[in-house]
Amino acid sequence: MIENGAKSINVHKRNIVLPRGELALSYQINAAIKRAGAGEQPYQLEDLLDFAQRINPKRAFLFVSKVLGRHIPVAPSVMRTSFTDLANLVPDELAEPILVIGMAETAVGLSAGVHQALQTRYPNALLLNSTRHAQHDDGNDSNNDNVLLTTFSEDHSHASQHLIYQSADKVTQAQLLATKTLIMVDDEASTGNTCVNVVSALRAAGLTQLQQVHLTTLVDWSLNQHQADTDDSVASRLANIDFYRHHLLSGAWQWTDAPNPEPIMMPSVDTTEAGSNALGDTGNWGRFPTLTSTDGFDSYLANFQQAVRVFNQQRQLDDAYLPTRILVLGSNEFVWLPFLLAEWLEKNSNIDNVINHPEIKFSALTRSPIALGGGISTRLSFTDNYGLGMTNFVYNVNPADWDLIVLCVETSSESVDSLWHGLDNVLIVSPS
């Protein structure tokens, strides 16, 4: 137990043994959060995380979120609760304009969820996500839709380069550049270096009015750095900016390599190319600055409902029939509208055309290479749907466990790997 002034902080310890080494954790429960539906108890480590081994020479371990809907299928209501609980930690009366920025690919859905929750208090807050998919220019010189604002690097990542786009709308762009409070959203922080890289890039790109930065993460693992008064702490590297942290759980980690670990070969996934398959129109859910991240949902929902009718007609079922166990899969960065679809299914589970008490869960395809073991029990690999010739993965998904898998993409259905087309319980939903 650490004595901190008048407060006592319980520090918990746990060691995680992985094939390439051992992860030693010390962490603190955030008692300020009373998690809905859990007897008003705060989040525990086992509520939030499992652990696995990266296929990555830069960092051998991975924190596998149990609430993010990325590598472990999660009920949409559980995801929504974590979005809202995290947003509620951000204080009132922040200086405006406010920018909420999320990190591709893992946190683009999380950032949209936090942004949506924050808009009950800050209705004019902008949302902007980084991306690793270059956005093609349409060739019209008068159209500024696809102009880069800046780039930055996430040094430890399997795909380190990020792109950030500006707005074609002059009013929105002016608000973006006038940002006074930056709320950076990520699934976890392990050193704080990415936050420094993002803020430095944004300031150099014209966001010169920044007064505050709020690093807002499900779990913050850089506790040992920001408690120490050192020259390399995040706060000390953000000159003339007030720096704050908000998280559901915090701690510190130490990694020890195993003796003579086996060498690994990481797939080639570090690209920011656009790919040869065109992106369909799914609205603006955050790749460009936006006040509203849901403007493409109604159209995508209509596409889903039409796809269900065709799917059922081919199987001689009632047009609107949906089975009990449904897994909705987003794809890479395209996860926010698919999450809203999964949430819509969950909320409408008692209507006539859906069997009562279904199991609706959400997860996503990813370019992130992870080894089997620990929090990763199964892995499917296939070619990406963007036309990059890149291997993609989905984890902890056995297709036979689901009556229906709804695979949501932002490209055409023809772009999807034959693995998915070969499964008779997969419904592909695309923009057209």
Description:
The chain is 21% helix and 28% strand. The protein has 432 residues and is of the alpha/beta class. It has a domain of 133 residues. The strands form six sheets. Strands 3-4-13-12-11-7-8 form a seven-stranded mixed sheet, with helices on both faces. It has a four-stranded parallel sheet with strand order 15-14-18-19, with helices on one face. Strands 1-2 form a two-stranded antiparallel sheet. α2 crosses α3. It is globular.
List keywords for this structure.
10 helices; 432 residues; alpha/beta; 7-stranded mixed beta sheet
Concise overview:
The protein is α/β, with parallel strands linked by helices and 432 residues long. The chain has helices at 45-48, 76-87, 108-118, 170-177, 193-204, 223-227, 234-237, 297-314, 336-347, 418-421, and strands at residues 2-4, 7-9, 12-18, 21-29, 49-53, 61-65, 98-102, 126-129, 148-153, 161-165, 181-189, 212-220, 242-257, 325-331, 359-365, 379-383, 391-395, 404-408, 426-429.
Furnish the topology, listing elements before pairings.
Elements (H helix, E strand, L loop, with lengths): L1 E3 L2 E3 L2 E7 L2 E9 L15 H4 E5 L7 E5 L10 H12 L10 E5 L5 H11 L7 E4 L18 E6 L7 E5 L4 H8 L3 E9 L3 H12 L7 E9 L2 H5 L6 H4 L4 E16 L39 H18 L10 E7 L4 H12 L11 E7 L13 E5 L7 E5 L8 E5 L9 H4 L4 E4 L3
Parallel strand pairs: 7-8, 7-11, 11-12, 12-13, 14-15, 14-18, 18-19
Antiparallel strand pairs: 1-2, 3-4, 4-13, 5-6, 9-10, 16-17
Helix pairs in contact: 2-3
